[in-house]
Amino acid sequence: MTDRNEILRYLGFRGKPADERTLQAIESCLAELEQAVTPRSMHRVFPVTFSGGAVAIGGFAVESADLAKHLSGCGEAALFAATLGARADFLLERAAKADMSRAVVMQACAAALTESVCDEFQQEIAEEAAKRGLYLRPRYSPGYGDFPIRYQRDFLKILECRKIGLSMTENCMLVPTKSVTAVIGLTKEKTSCHIAKCMECRSADCPFRKE
Q: Where would a tag sit more exposed on the chain, N or C end, judged by fewer CB atoms within 10 A?
């Protein structure tokens, strides 16, 4: 179930009521997206080791103090990728050509739907982990903090993401655009952060950042 409050946050309605026209546009765009897209995901779990400000997930080494801090206490981590598929991009492009105000709403709905889909796929990982007495840390994606976006290339190669139709541009942007790659830590520690929406990061402009 896509959270309408998240859509409103993307649209800039932080704690402010939206007008009826906007609410109707949200429902219309969301219904169109949900009917059209076929979300897919992949993940693999690897051991985690630390060395200074670097972290290695299987044979995948990352120079990122922020990611190392985020995974502190985790013995394993999942490399995760998910996408709404090419159909979402088609709808976004079509809306941009026909009606820019609707295109803005469509973008917000697609972003929130992507997060919702990731949450659903992540729940499958959580259920697998629970059988081994492990809990999940929130998703941490390339581009957050000092975790360079270029590492998405490694994600796609390790996970063989072409199997779900996911690729990237020379600038390391994901294609289709409504896609996510992330590291998900697995830990024996059960704390409230494992069910929180956000991880620790320095993204001051994030729409989910706490006030």
A: C
